[in-house]
Design a protein that fits this description.
Layout: H1 4-13, E1 19-24, H2 32-45, E2 50-54, H3 62-65, E3 68-83, H4 93-97, E4 103-106, E5 109-112, H5 122-126, E6 132-147, E7 153-160, H6 167-179, E8 185-189, H7 196-202, E9 207-212, H8 216-231, E10 236-243, H9 250-256, E11 260-266, H10 269-276, H11 281-284, H12 288-303, H13 310-317
Parallel strand pairs: 1-8, 1-9, 2-7, 2-8, 9-10, 10-11
Antiparallel strand pairs: 3-6, 4-5, 6-7
This protein binds iron/sulfur cluster (2 copies).
One iron/sulfur cluster is lined by residues 83, 88-94, 105, 110, 127-129, 131-132.
Length: 320
């Protein structure tokens, strides 16, 4: 399974490029990991080599459903500016040029707010006295391993250290590690929401699956996620999880947005029971294979270039 975009990347890189599927949702708890893990297993069982990257770095949990033998553990660091107050003449250049407001001159001394410093290096290169340097701080780790259930399924997991806020840089490192491995398909389990973390996970995917539920909250958050995916011009498919549990008509909204509902997972107590004990519905519920195959067939259409992209819908709505 490889999209035209993946094929282009492949030609450019003169190497192997998997199809990249991002599984995301506007809010947590909608069933994103349920969909990502079970699709990964469906494809691995069908003979594809699959890489599942858990980019929900603040609360990764794919490994609970797919335990793996870790064969690589990498510490991830992020650069932050570090001034030398002895060499500083308090000219204020660093503060003036920092696009993120991460450095301020307080009491004649530059103070760097490490949480919002992006490590871009602008202050370092523009400091006239060489007083501004940089250092590396650990933000988390990325583990890699083969899933115990199948040699064809590899799991890459990003874990943010407690107290750290630089999720995007760790997500970038998680994706970088995932993209290092040969696979037919790379499934990115994205963090919920539409902030920087979600953007870092979803960017450059070949397709975006948005998992939602038929409630007012689900609809509201789906709307935000659709804007994110549309801005990126990604083909988008919506999966309604807990279908039948609420009164909201997701399909009506999706149709108005010219996005397809590409799968439904019913509201069924057995699914909650399987999930709660770390099981996989594809293993335990006979009907699950057909729910997942429906979603998979949309992804195959995208890979073959026969599914419309959200950008097409956007252009149509804008009359372009
Ligand atoms: S640019 Fe350099 S010298 Fe000027 S305030 Fe910042 S650290 Fe100090
Ligand atoms: S490294 Fe970049 S983000 Fe950090 S303080 Fe310097 S200019 Fe600002």
């Amino acid at each position: 399974m490889r999209s035209r975009a993946a094929a282009d990347r492949c030609e450019l890189a003169d190497g192997y490029a998997p199809f990249i599927l991002a599984v995301a949702s506007g809010k947590g708890g909608t069933g994103k990991t349920l969909v990502a893990t079970n699709l990964a297993v469906l494809w691995a069982d069908a003979g594809l080599s699959v890489l599942l990257a858990d980019c929900d770095v603040e609360a990764p949990n794919s490994h609970l459903f797919l335990p793996a033998r870790t064969d690589k553990l990498t510490s991830v660091e992020s650069k932050v500016a570090r001034p030398d107050s002895q060499a500083c003449n308090a000219c204020g250049t660093c503060s003036d040029l920092c696009a993120f407001g991460a450095v301020r001159i307080l009491g004649g001394t530059p103070v760097v707010f490490e949480e919002i410093c992006h490590g871009c290096g602008v202050c370092v290169s523009s400091c006239p006295t060489g007083a501004m340097g940089e250092c590396s701080l650990r933000v988390g780790e990325v583990s890699t391993g083969v899933a115990k259930r199948s040699q064809r399924l590899r799991l890459v997991t990003g874990r943010l250290d407690i107290g750290q806020v630089k999720a995007p840089s760790l997500i970038g490192a998680t994706r970088e590690e995932a993209e290092r491995w040969d696979a037919d398909i790379l499934v990115l389990d994205a963090p919920p929401g539409v902030a920087c973390s979600a953007v870092a996970a979803v960017r450059h995917a070949d397709a975006l699956l948005l998992v939602t539920e038929p409630t007012a909250f689900g609809l509201h958050d789906l709307e935000l996620s659709l804007m994110l995916g549309s801005d990126m011009g990604l083909p988008i498919g919506v999966v309604v999880n807990r279908d039948g549990s609420g009164p909201t008509d997701i399909a009506e909204f999706a149709t108005a947005q010219r996005v397809d509902v590409v799968g439904r997972i019913p509201f069924d107590r057995r699914i909650a029971e399987v999930y709660a004990r770390g099981g996989l519905i594809v293993d335990e519920l006979p009907e699950a294979t057909s729910w997942l195959r429906t979603i998979s067939s949309w992804i195959e259409d995208v890979a073959e270039g026969s599914a419309p992209s959200a950008a097409d819908g956007l252009r149509e709505r804008a009359g372009r």
